[in-house]
Every structure is written in C-alpha cells, then in structure tokens.
Design goal:
The complex is a heterodimer of chains A (583) and B (339). The radius of gyration of chain A is 27 Å and the shape is globular. In chain A, α19 runs antiparallel to α20. Chain A has 21 helices and 21 strands. Chain A has 583 residues and is α+β, with helices and mostly antiparallel strands. Chain B has 339 residues and is mainly α. Chain B has 12 helices and 2 strands, in the order αααββααααααααα. Chain B has a two-stranded antiparallel ribbon. In chain B, a hairpin with a 7-residue loop joins β1 and β2. In chain B, α5 packs across α8. Chain B is globular and about 85 Å long. Classes of the chains: A alpha+beta (583), B mainly alpha (339).
Chain lengths: 583, 339
C-alpha cells in the first residue's frame, strides 16, 4: 500500500496525457462502411458503379433526392417538389424554386443558372457524360425567371409521371467554378443536344471541355466543390475512401432541415473489401461498423452467435429487386404462351427462396412487391406443378415421343432449351439446376449456359438465349414497366422480346395515368396479363440485409440501395452528448 | 522483347474483336444504378455507345488493314490512322495510355498497385526460397522417421489446397476474434516514424505473405529434396561421407551447389505462380495490388491496363530468365560461355 499513491499518480498522469477519453474518441471516430468495389471515379457526370453514386450524394446535391425514411423522392436543393403542367399531349413543364439558403462553399448562392449550366455540361462532347446526355435529353429548355434567380421552369419532351422524379435526379454543379465568364449562358440547351457528333464543337464548348478535363475531377473531386455536406479527405484506390463533414454547411442553418438535408457522421470511411468472408471477419474484428448487403448465409450464421448479437444489430428490409426467369418469346419453341405457362409450372419459387435466400425475401405474383398498394393479390402464387406443365404442353400441341422427348407435329426438333445465367451467382445457378432437374423429369432437354456478366447482358440484348435467370432492379418511384415489356424496348431492356400491341397500349396508359384508382385498375390488369402471357416468371423479391455496430444510432434502413441512410447514422456517445444529460 | 511485343500486340488486337466492347460494359453498369431515370431506348443507347467510342479513341480503324464491312474477302488499307499505330507510337514514347474507366494514366495506376504487390511477392519469394532450402536439407538428411513423413505429408497437402481456400482458412484461424486474433488492427493514421511504418506493414502483411509462402513452398521444396537425395547416392557424396564428413556438411558444401541448378529454373517459373497468387491474396486480404488491378481491368474490359500488364509481365519474365542464366553461370562455371 505504500506505493499506492505512486500508482494513482501515474494513472492520473497517463489519463491526463492521453489525447482523448473513450467517449471523445468515439465522437470523432469514423464510421467504417464496407464497399465491395472501388467507386473508380468521383466524376459527377459519370457514375461507373453504385458506390460512385453514393459518393456523389455526399459531395453534391440534387434538386430532388431519395428519402430513405419513406423510400420516396423529396425536395433537396429544391424548396418543394416541382409543380407539373402538361402542355398539349407531348410537353411537360416542371416549375422549381431553389432553397434560398442553398450556398456553395465560397458563399455564392445556388441559382437557376447553375442548374442550366449543369444540364448544358451534360451535353458537352468529349466528357464522360454519355449516359447522362441521353438520360436527361428529355429536358429541352431551362426557362429562368427574370425576377427571381432561384425560380426556373424545365420544359420537358414527353409526358410521364416518372419524369417528375427524373427531372431532379442529377447533381447540380457550380457554374462559377468552371465557367466564370458565363460563356454557355447564351447557348440554348437544345442547340447543344442537337449538335451533330461529326461537327466541331463551338469554341466556348471546347474551352469548357478542356477546363473540365484538366481539372481531373474523377480523381480530385475537390477541384469541383459541391454543395453537399462532405468533402473527400483520402482516397486510396481499391483500399479506402474517407469523407469528412464540412465544419460549416449551409443546411445546418435551416430551422427544420428535412431528412435528406441532415448529415450527422463527422467521418465516413468506406473500406473496399471485395471478398465477403474477409469482410465478415473485419466486422467481427470491429474494423467495419456497417456491412450492407450481407449474404443470407453469413447473416444467419452471425445471428446464431450470442457474442455477435451483443455487439451488432441486424436489419432486414424488403428490396425492390426481383429474381425472374425470362423466356425469349421470339424463339419458335417459346412463341406459344401455353408452352411458357407449362415451363413456368416447373419452377418452385417457395423452395428456391428457402434454398437460396434461407427464406429471407418475399414470394410474388408479379413485378410489384407484395407491400405495394397496386399489388394484385387476387392472383394465386405460382407453385411447382409438373402434372399441370405436362397438360399445358399437350394443350400447346407438343407430343411426347417414345424416347421421352417432346416434339411438335411435323417437326423433328425436340423441345430443347438453353438456359443462360450469370456464372458468378450461386442463386442463379441453384434456380437453373432446379429447373433443369424438373424439366428432365418431364423429358425436356435443358442445357445450362453459365455466362460472364457482361457477355450475358450483351446476349440478352441480342436475344441469344432461350431462357435466362436474372434480377430486375425495381424502385418505389415509378411504375414504368415499358422498359421491360414495350415493343420499343426490344434490343435494349425488353430482353424477353415481348411484342404485343395490347400490352404496349396498356403500358402507355399506365405511364401517363395520374388518377390513383384508375392506375390501380390498370396495374392489376397488367399483372394479370403478364401472368397469362408469361414473358417472364417473377420468383421472389430479395431482402436487403444490414449489420451495424450496436453503438450506432439512428439506423434508417431502406429497400433502396445502399439499403440504409448513411447520413443519419450517429455514434451513441455523440447522440447522448447532442441530446444533453438525461434528467 | 520481340515476344513481349508480339504478346501485347496480340492482346491489343484480340481485345478489339471481342463480342463485348468497353462502351457496352460502361453502359451495362450504368443501367444497374439506382436512379430515377429509366433505361435508355435503343436509339439513345446506340448514340451513347458511339459517343463513348469517340471519346476512348475506339472509333478509328483497329489496324493498318481491315476487312471492308459486309464483305468476306475484301480488305482496305487504313494508313497510319489506326488504333494499333497510335498505341504502338505511344508505347514507344513510354506512354501506356489511359484507363477507360477513370481516365487515369496506366503507368500511374500500375505504379501505385506495384508499390503494394512487389514487397508482398518479393518477401514471399525470399521467405519461400529460404524455407525451401531449410526444409529440403532436412528432408534429405533425415533418414525416415516421423518428422520427415510429417513434413512431406504437410507439403503434399499444401500443394493440393487451392490458394483461395488457404488464404481464407488462415484468415479465419489467425485473424478471427473467435479463434486466434493475431493480426494487428488496421490503422490509417500516419506512422510516427519509418520503423513504425515498416512494423505496421509487416503486421498487416504477415498473413498474405504466409499464404503465398505456403502456396509455393511445396513447388520449391519437393524437387530440391529429391535432387539432394539423388546427389546423395552419387560417388562423390559417398567419398565425402567415407572421409568422415558429417551428413549436414556434405549436403550443404558438396551436394547443394549441384542440386541448386533445377531450383533456379523453378524460381524463374515461380513468377507466374506468384502473380496468380497475388490476385487471390489481394482479393482475400483486400489489398490494392497489381494482381487485383489487372483482374478487375480484365473483368471491366479496361484494355489499356490489361495490355500494359501483359507487357510488364513479359518484361519481368524476361529479366527472370536472364537472372536464372546468370545464377547458372555462377553456380556452375562449366556452363559459362567460352570465347
């Protein structure tokens, strides 16, 4: 006991010398988030992958942005959703007001001229803006208000409800940073859009392109500061990307900032870990705090451990991505809908959901999730029914041969199908194997063709397949199924090459219908039609699985990518400091 | 060098005739993003593809002569304005081009990646060679017994385990809080001094290096041990042992120089194994090295990086062959060229 005073003094001294208390350390600690791939480029005009989209949302703001609390688009830089005016039968006018508080980092206000500049920048040749160029070409003109510099109207070609969200879903860039002389203001947007590819660009356009290229924004996004809440601190290619919260950000001064304009974490550190098993171990080692899109197996395994459950929180949220089996309806063997109906009875959606997702997900009758108010719950869930399949094949005119195969009368060709799926996905492989086994029992020859992802996408576009297994990306924002079933989309996104006048007409009606009751009727009708025609078989909706450190608060999960609202996250200690001492 | 140029040219030309082109890959990725705008129409897609081809320099003819579109036997002369000529001119000026994905110079990307991979693969090669020498001497000197059997069985087992499985097993066993948690925590703050930085690197690189060492160890050890045992039966070895030299000294002094010659060839062949190994190890341990860069570039059809990687590997392979020849000359004077 005689040295007790010495030990106490040393302990005090060490405590005093340490830079921060554990609580303080947690307040400033970065939130480590798993990314499976590098964002590749942080250019606001080009998004090479989903991680680049996430990064852009930290650095830049759009007029409208996803609100992960409600899975809907809400006003961000815009004060409110645009007012819509349909003009004639082919033009839409969308009227926007920008937030008066919105400012760039140098204190300049965000104005309609910045929106106009961004749209024009998207049309400049020689920049990596090819996708934006086509996606936003429906906006033909920006009409500024001569009195109010924050008020403008977008004149859009076409009429569709989905256009409202799309018109505000692009990062707004500062005109002053790239075009301080306002050289593009005199040039109408439509002129840039219609500029022939072979024609030499106008001198101001060429000069702007040179300035943009020399700024190397893809790697040094700081050269084009956005009005978002974060700035890039470190980016080690294929290793980690660190973002830091701006000390002063214009939205902090808002009286009641909407959810999309809240940014709580001080530091966000995205660790790039391509391998799932390594990422799971990193999570266990507390090198990761947020692990989105965890595989069903790892998610279930981790949950079985008591110690893991004490340290981490587990969340599942239904996503909008649906796994489907598609038929190439242009193939002679699959042209008859009865044949497609027969083949659909060979799939076992419930069994496949259990086998591939361990039951995490939801069975569906169509491309709308069961939670959607327009979901057609009158349709019965599809089940494995080989006897029905056989009966339908006979009804379709197929005849069973003595060797067990099926042939059409007058044809020597047996019913033989090639099934393509992405080679690196175990879910697709399991579905393909189940279908082949069920088909073999009935004497249908199915050849599996596992294919590299890019080659598969090209094969689907060109129609080089009989059957395919794939995921369709959905969203709660729009109910535009034209992309998958309209005859105009054959060769691009209508991979089943479904071509029916009545369906085209129905899809066009759904696109423009704004009355909720009528839309419900049309969509239920559409789901019935797809069930009857079977250009594809929706099997089940996938789940978003998220694991987070239990010390993180305000975890808002979403069915949309990335599956959670990163800007809402907050360390428990910070949260308690912010809310003050509890009485 | 001729072979390196030939292989790189072949990769360059083959990459231009693949069914899926870089602009298609870029647009496929773009379609998968969670944005409000829907997929483009066929006309828009074609326009986007053409614009990307223009930007990446893929719109020009591929080679000096190309087949006339729509014709089977008619060819046309394109002059010097073709993709291959532009690429070759750039390479001769030390410019390997720019990545299709992010527009960065390929040399910069490769240099950053090599800064991770070279220490990793180099350390693994040195450690594996040293360990192989020790183990081979042990296997040759041990006259039967449990130790020799155990080492041989372990090496045989290591040889059949895929590297990916090996790396993940090491990760699960030695960096897992539920097993042994030996790997130090990652720290991204700058190290206070050079020594601390090296220590930190060694701590994090230990498991990747161990994976690579274990992967190549059987390839190096087993042939060397067999060679030593073969030499042990030679007359000069019997004489040395008859003169009373201990077995260890006979092995090191008399047999090893002769048995080493096949090892040099094996070491030269080690390069492809290590390159393949670094791809796997860099993925498993999330390291941003050259193996991962090349694998990802191949998957994304980022051909400037792929072609540069091929050139680099061919060059290093050439250097390895020269180094092996020099080692041969040093180990066996009889092999030196006579003037």
């Amino acid at each position: 006991m005689r040295y007790h005073w010495l030990v106490s003094s040393l302990t005090l001294l060490i405590s005093a010398c340490s830079t921060a208390s554990p609580e303080q350390a947690q307040v400033a600690a970065p939130i480590h988030i798993r990314w499976s791939t590098d964002p590749i480029a942080l250019d606001p005009l080009a998004f090479p992958n989903q991680n680049a989209v996430e990064a852009a949302a930290l650095l830049h703001l759009s007029l409208l942005q996803n609100d992960y609390q409600t899975d809907s688009f809400t006003a961000c830089l815009a004060e409110q959703l645009p007012t819509v005016q349909f003009v004639g039968d082919s033009v839409t006018r969308l009227e926007y007001h920008l937030r008066p508080a919105a400012k760039w980092d140098d204190g300049r206000p965000v104005l309609a001229t910045d929106v106009d500049f961004t749209l024009k920048l998207m049309q400049c040749p020689g920049l990596p803006n090819e996708m934006s160029r086509t996606q936003f070409s429906f906006i033909r003109q920006v009409l500024p208000d001569p009195v109010d510099p924050r008020h403008f109207t977008l004149v859009c070609r076409g009429q569709a409800v989905e256009m409202i969200n799309a018109s505000g879903d692009f990062p707004i860039l500062p005109e002053a940073a790239l075009d301080a002389q306002h050289t593009l203001r005199a040039l109408p947007l439509a002129v840039l859009q219609d500029w022939p590819a072979a024609k030499v660009p106008l001198p101001p356009v060429a000069a702007l392109v040179r300035r943009y290229q020399s700024a190397d924004i893809a790697r040094t996004p700081g050269n084009l500061p956005g009005c978002g809440p974060y700035r890039l601190v470190v980016w080690e290619h294929n290793r980690h990307v660190l973002f830091s919260r701006k000390a002063t950000w214009w939205a902090d001064s808002l009286h009641a900032a909407p959810f999309v304009l809240q940014a709580r974490p001080q530091l966000l550190d995205y660790l790039i870990m391509p391998e799932d098993a390594a990422a799971t171990i990193a999570l266990r080692r507390h090198e990761l705090d947020v692990y989105p899109h965890m595989s069903a197996r790892s998610f279930q395994q981790l949950q079985t451990s008591e110690s893991v459950r004490q340290e981490f929180a587990f969340y599942t949220e239904p996503s909008y991505d649906v796994v489907v089996v598609g038929f190439n309806t242009s193939r002679a063997t699959l042209r008859n809908k009865l044949t497609r109906q027969a083949l659909s009875r060979l799939l076992d959606p419930a069994g496949l959901l259990a086998a591939t997702q361990l039951g995490q997900g939801s069975l569906t009758v169509g491309l709308l999730p069961p939670t959607n108010p327009f979901y057609n719950d009158s349709l019965a869930a599809l089940t494995y029914a080989p006897s029905q399949a056989q009966a339908l094949l006979l009804k379709a005119g197929w005849q069973r041969q003595p060797d067990g195969n099926w042939q059409q009368p007058g044809s020597k060709e047996p019913l033989a199908l090639a099934l393509r799926y992405r080679a690196d996905d175990a879910t697709f492989a399991t579905i393909a194997l189940q279908f082949r086994a069920a088909a073999a029992k009935l004497g249908i020859i199915v050849t599996l063709v596992p294919t590299e992802a890019n080659v598969l996408s090209s094969a689907l576009k060109s129609g080089d397949f009989d059957i395919c297994v794939r995921t369709l990306k959905g969203s709660p924002f729009g109910l535009n199924f034209s992309v998958y079933f309209h005859s105009k989309a054959i060769g691009t996104s209508n991979f089943s090459r479904f071509n029916q006048y009545a369906t085209d007409h129905l899809l066009e009606a759904i696109e423009v219908e704004s009355n909720r009751l009528r839309k419900r009727h049309l969509l239920r009708n559409f789901q019935e039609r797809i069930r009857d025609e079977v250009p594809l078989v929706p099997l089940f909706f996938l789940s978003n699985r998220l694991v987070t450190n239990k010390q993180l608060r305000h975890v808002v999960t979403s069915g949309l990518k990335p599956g959670y609202a990163v800007q809402a996250l907050m360390w428990a200690q910070t949260d308690s400091l912010a809310s003050g001492p509890t009485p | 060098m001729l072979a390196a140029w030939g292989i790189a040219s072949l990769v360059f030309l083959v990459s231009r005739v693949l069914p899926v082109s870089p602009e298609q890959v870029a647009l496929i990725e773009a379609e998968d993003l969670s944005r409000a705008v829907g997929p483009a129409s066929a006309v828009q897609l074609a326009a986007s593809q053409q614009a990307i081809r223009q930007r990446l320099g893929l719109a020009a003819p591929v080679f000096y002569i190309t087949r006339i579109p729509g014709s089977t036997n008619d060819w046309q002369w394109n002059g010097l304005h073709n993709q291959y000529h532009d690429w070759l001119s750039q390479v001769l000026h030390g410019n390997l081009g720019k990545s299709y994905l992010d527009g960065q110079p390929v040399t910069t990307l490769l240099a950053h990646a090599l800064a991770y991979s070279v220490p990793l693969a180099g350390s693994a090669a040195v450690l594996a060679t040293t360990l192989a020498l020790v183990l081979a001497l042990f296997l040759a000197s041990a006259s039967g017994g449990g130790g020799r059997t155990l080492v041989q069985a372990s090496l045989a087992a290591l040889q059949v385990i895929p590297l990916f499985l090996l790396a993940l097993t090491l990760l699960l066993l030695l960096a897992n809080p539920e097993m042994l948690n030996l790997m130090p925590e990652s720290s991204r703050s700058p190290a206070p001094n050079q020594l601390a930085a090296i220590g930190r690197w060694a701590g994090r690189a230990a498991l990747p290096i161990l994976s690579l060492v274990l992967a190549v160890l059987p390839t190096l050890t087993l042939p060397l041990a067999a060679s030593l045992r073969h030499e042990l039966n030679a007359a000069y070895a019997t004489t040395a042992r008859a003169k009373g030299l201990p077995i260890g000294r006979v092995l090191r002094r008399h047999l090893l120089p002769n048995a080493l010659l096949p090892l040099f060839t094996t070491l030269t062949d080690l390069l492809p194994t290590l390159v393949a190994g670094t791809v796997v190890v860099e993925v498993a341990f999330s390291l941003p090295g050259s193996g991962r860069l090349l694998a990802e570039a191949a998957a994304a059809h980022d051909y400037p990086i792929v072609v540069a990687g091929v050139l680099l590997l061919a060059g290093v392979r050439l250097l390895c062959l020269i180094a092996a020849d020099m080692l041969y000359f040093m180990a066996d004077p009889r092999l030196r060229p006579t003037t």
